[in-house]
């Protein structure tokens, strides 16, 4: 059997708000609460992967990077702009509104309220 990542935990002060934020920016579906007591707020990334947001008292930011096709990238960029969410081409400056990523033709970073750094990369 091939190894695939099933889920990963994303720490957040308000797990449901954090899941809603990422799902809305990325155009991904939020799933119903999961876990024994519904303590996860999952977001479906693809057929095999969910990001399970979990409330913690003092979350440390994580870095999650996504490869997307050009059409998906355009949708994410449009949603960021429409919502007035800062983005940028450098993880140290995720608010410079540039998409000329150093590792791919187009890419960007954005941050959520809990300092989770999201990276989106497109081949064109």
UniProtKB/TrEMBL annotation:
Residues spanning the signal sequence: none
InterPro entries (alphabetical): Glyas_Bleomycin-R_OHBP_Dase (IPR029068), VOC_core (IPR037523)
Domain VOC, chain residue ranges per copy: 4-123
UniProt-listed CDD domains: ChaP_like
Lineage: superkingdom: Bacteria
Residue stretches in coiled coil: none
Name of the protein in its database record: Glyoxalase
Natural source organism: Streptomyces albospinus
